[in-house]
Amino acid sequence: MQMTKVFSPDAIPAGGHYSQAISAGGMIYISGQLGISKFDDPTDSVHIQVHRVLNSLKEILAVRGADIASVAKVTIYVTDIKLWPEIDAIYSDFFANHKPARAIVPVPELHYGAKIELEAIAIDTQ
Fold it and tell me: Is the pTM of this model over 0.90?
């Protein structure tokens, strides 16, 4: 099986030894997108961080000619489950009528002090 690295300069940069995403077997596997990078302010609101990860997702998908309607599965890690209503409202507006499978996972902390991390699996349209 052939694997292709997927990179968007308009998405959150990879902060370690991994790709932003990999296309393989007709799917796009998007690595965890943190709500902040090492260059952002860790005190940015969850509102800003959610928009940042969703924009990053959109930019990575665009590299493969895909869009949010191609997303099949999303996993969201959040450091404070009390933030979930705000996160879900932004997420719902972003995806509109499209409802991919999803999991929300409370975690004690994320790298760089981020409040949210999102990973996804999408259908590759190329």
Answer: yes
